[in-house]
UniProtKB/TrEMBL annotation:
Residues 258-316 form the Acyl-CoA dehydrogenase/oxidase C-terminal domain. Residues 151-246 form the Acyl-CoA oxidase/dehydrogenase middle domain. PROSITE patterns: ACYL_COA_DH_1. Homotetramer. It catalyses: 2-methylbutanoyl-CoA + oxidized [electron-transfer flavoprotein] + H(+) = (2E)-2-methylbut-2-enoyl-CoA + reduced [electron-transfer flavoprotein]. Pathway: Amino-acid degradation; L-isoleucine degradation; Lipid metabolism; mitochondrial fatty acid beta-oxidation. Residues 36-146 form the Acyl-CoA dehydrogenase/oxidase N-terminal domain. Its EC number is 1.3.8.5. GO terms for biological process: fatty acid metabolic process. This is short-chain 2-methylacyl-CoA dehydrogenase. GO terms for molecular function: flavin adenine dinucleotide binding; short-chain 2-methyl fatty acyl-CoA dehydrogenase activity. Keywords: FAD, Fatty acid metabolism, Flavoprotein, Lipid metabolism, Oxidoreductase. Its cofactor is FAD.
Length: 318
């Protein structure tokens, strides 16, 4: 038996959904900007988690450019790594919107932790849920929900924005493929236990030869390369990942042969919404920190917030 997401998230997922409507079209359309009662409870729960378990480690993790060992354990224990994974696989069975709210709330405290949660929920889990065979789902989804971080291996030195010009190949062999190539700027690679790897199984077909493969970390020939020394988001590792004759089976194909480009597009689009949530959360966290400071800082016998120009600065940047 695998461990399920915490009771709190399951309780939220099972509550009757409250449908709040906007005034558009006579109040017949759900309001996109009004959270439900359950979503407000989720945000409150994630906020408390971030304050108690993330905030005390932020400065050290940023200085060391390293994730604290217990951080991943806490994220999994809280159920934040399998928000949309169905309960039968050990996840919380919640919605994409719930994932986005979680990412935003975490980013208010540390964007690096938000990146980790974003990639797991909006890229990896979605790719497995929508494209995995039942065998792949049963093997990996319980682990992705409870104890295994994953990485999305698409970008290369010559395939950044033009991702489909990738050079990594998957040469057919008996019963599977042999992957050769390297990926750059791969988030969470240092800690990942499994990788979704995009390689071209038939270069003669161009991007229509690209296929997605599920590759475990312990696969012979998989090498985690240099870790980038970044200016920010330092607790989330960004590394080169090398594939030196890594052999995978036909059963390790995610989706269909030659359909990897579709998987990339279909998962990157919601992933970009997660990035937007990170930026909103970071901005809100910065604003909250600035407000606390100007209210607490005293000069000439009063709070600096009482000086005329300070509120103008705050308002101008909001």
């Amino acid at each position: 038996m695998f461990r399920r997401a915490p009771r709190t998230l399951h309780a939220l997922a099972r509550r009757p959904r409250q449908r709040l409507c906007s005034t558009v079209a006579g109040g017949s359309r759900p309001a996109l900007t009004t959270p439900t009662e359950e979503q407000e409870m989720l945000v409150d729960s994630v906020s408390k988690f971030a304050q108690q378990h993330v905030l005390p480690h932020v400065a050290k993790m940023d200085a060391d450019a390293k994730l604290e060992p217990e951080m991943l354990t806490n994220l999994f224990s809280e159920g934040l790594m399998g928000i949309e994974i169905p309960e039968k696989y050990g996840g919380a069975g919640m919605s994409f919107t719930d994932s986005i709210l979680t990412i935003e709330e975490l980013a208010k405290v540390d964007p690096a932790i938000a990146v980790i949660v974003d990639i797991q929920n909006t890229l990896i889990n979605l790719a497995f849920l929508e494209n995995g065979t039942e065998e792949i789902k049963e093997k990996w989804l319980p682990r992705l929900a409870t104890d295994t971080l994953a990485s999305f291996c698409l970008s290369e030195s010559s395939a950044g924005s033009d991702a489909f010009s990738l050079k990594t190949t998957a040469t057919p062999i008996d019963g599977g493929f042999r992957i050769n190539g390297s990926k750059l700027w791969i988030s969470n690679a240092a800690e990942a236990g499994v990788f979704v790897v995009f390689a071209n199984a038939d270069p003669s077909k161009g991007y229509k030869g690209i296929t997605a493969f599920v590759v475990p970390r312990d696969a012979p020939g998989l090498i985690i390369g240099k870790k980038e020394d970044k200016l920010g988001i330092r607790a989330s590792s960004t590394c080169e990942v090398v594939f030196d004759g890594v052999e995978v089976k036909n059963e390790d194909i995610l989706g269909e042969l030659g359909k990897g480009y579709k998987i990339a597009i279909e998962t990157l689009n919601p992933g970009r919404i997660g990035i937007g949530a990170q930026m909103v959360g970071l901005a809100r966290g910065t604003y909250d920190a600035a407000m606390r400071y100007i209210l607490e800082r005293k000069q000439f016998g009063k709070s600096v917030a009482d000086f005329q120009l300070i509120p103008v600065y705050i308002a101008d940047r909001c």
